[in-house]
Amino acid sequence: MSEPSRSEPAYPPGEGPTTSVSVSVHEGTISAVRARVGKRGVSPYIEAAIQRQIERDSLAELIAANEELHGALAPEEIEAAEREMFGSAQPGTEHAA
Predict the structure, then answer these.
(1) CA nearest 50: which of 74, 18, 82?
(2) Which of 9-18, 60-69, 72-81 is least confident?
(3) pTM passes above 0.85
């Protein structure tokens, strides 16, 4: 069985054995993480953040590929989809009396 190339991960995000890596993070960022999760919760917190970023990157790639094939959605199409998903009242468009 051949080993996967660097561009093909052996496991999908969130699966497989853990491995230690060294990364540089701003002190303020790490302090904020530790304040939320404690010292022992840093790795799971960062793991979840990385997985969310991978999902966002994949979604952005999917949208770009779709737009390349079909063109960008018109504002009217986006508004119609939002109405279908969320109803006629759009988040952030309510006005206080």
Answers:
(1) 18
(2) 9-18
(3) no
- Record the tokens describing residue 41, joined without a space: 């919760």
pLDDT band with cut points at 50, 70 and 90 for residue 97: very low
Question: Average pLDDT, stretch 33-47?
Answer: 96
Q: For 67-73, which contacts have Cβ atoms below 8 Å and span 24 or more sequence positions?
A: none
- Any idea which residue has 């530790």 for tokens? 34
Map tokens 């998903």 to a residue. Answer: 85
Concatenated DSSP letters of the chain: -PPPPTTS-SS-TT-S----------HHHHHHHHHHH-GGGHHHHHHHHHHHHHHHHHHHHHHHHHHHHH-PPPHHHHHHHHHHHH-SSPTT-----
CA-wise closest residue to 63 among 54, 76, 73:
73
Both tokens assigned to 8: 């093909």
